[in-house]
Amino acid sequence: MRPTLFVVTGPSGAGKGTLIRRLVERRDDLAVAISATTRPRRPGEEDGREYHFLSEEDFLRRVRAGDFLEHVCYVSGHRYGTLRQEVERITATGRSCVLELETQGAREVKSTEPEAVTIFVEAPSFAELERRLRERATESAGEIGERLALARRQAEEAADFDHVVTNDDVERAVGEIERIVDGALAAPRAAGKLLSS
Ligand code: 5GP
């Protein structure tokens, strides 16, 4: 089976990370690409595990070197990006790659890798999304406000992606994503640029 790129997107607080962790725990044919970011490390996070934490200078140097499949400047001016070498590291072993991206990055990947499968994860309601974001509250009050405003805008973008999954119940939602993955892996596809070599 040809490795596929799965992009899980949606508003911050919808629970993308939890669903992806559960998904890859269940399957050895999938792995998550570790993104690079310039945002500060949160308590409990480790460099090279949640993210590759880069300085602004290093991040921009790697942008200039063409190392990123996509990158964005997001909340509070922090940068996030997918390193090509991360995707290649995973697909070289025959596994499919899962990316967790905000919506702009997801669109960018879809435009350069049209065979990528995009999955938009939404919270069951905006009130629930807000509750989850406030509960997480690792950021400053200003940053939470910014994330909420962004989440509200992003929640309206669902229709632009291949699939929409409502994260009302984690097990149910993971099951739904797994069926999407199985369907995509079983379907014949044209080779994309990144995955064709
Ligand atoms: P957080 O700061 O909460 O870890 O992540 C903030 C947002 O950045 C999340 O919506 C997450 O999906 C997104 N994100 C994480 N890594 C990347 C990346 O490599 N590229 C893009 N475009 N978004 C990312």
Summarize the structure.
This protein is α/β, with parallel strands linked by helices and 197 residues long. The protein contains seven helices and nine strands; from the N terminus they run βαβββαββαβαβααβα. The protein has one domain: Rossmann fold (3-Layer(aba) Sandwich).
Description:
The structure is a single chain. By secondary structure, this protein is an alpha/beta fold. The chain has 7 helices and 9 strands, in the order E-H-E-E-E-H-E-E-H-E-H-E-H-H-E-H. The chain has one domain: Rossmann fold, CATH 3.40.50. It has helices at about 15-25, 55-65, 85-90, 105-110, 125-135, 140-155, 170-185; strands at about 5-10, 30, 35, 50-55, 70-75, 80-85, 95-100, 115-120, 165. The strands form 2 sheets. It has a 5-stranded parallel sheet with strand order 2-7-1-8-9, with helices on both faces. A 4-stranded mixed sheet has the order 4-3-6-5, with helices on both faces. A hairpin with a 5-residue loop joins strand 5 (about 70-75) and strand 6. The chain starts with a strand and ends in an 11-residue tail after the last helix. Guanosine-5'-monophosphate binds next to strand 5 and strand 6.
